[in-house]
Amino acid sequence: MITVGKDRREAMDKMTRSLNEYMITGVKTTIPLEQAILQDPNFRRGVYSTNFIEELLGGARRELIEEKQ
User: Fold this and answer.
1) 18 φ, ψ (degrees, to nearest 5)
2) What is the pLDDT of residues 40-69, one digit of tens each?
3) Cα–Cα dist 16/26, whole Å
């Protein structure tokens, strides 16, 4: 999925809204991970590094992601 906005924030808001509206059943998806990424304050500010996902999965959000699957 690709979203476009007048700026980064608007594009991320559109992506969040779109991911929340997806209804896929029968298979696991990466949607919970993508939602967690978009909710992360550092990612939203554009402050992240190449180990961002590793840090995200190692933190408290891991339970959130697994819970939604």
Assistant:
1) -65, -45
2) 999 999 998 898 888 888 865 555 656 665
3) 22
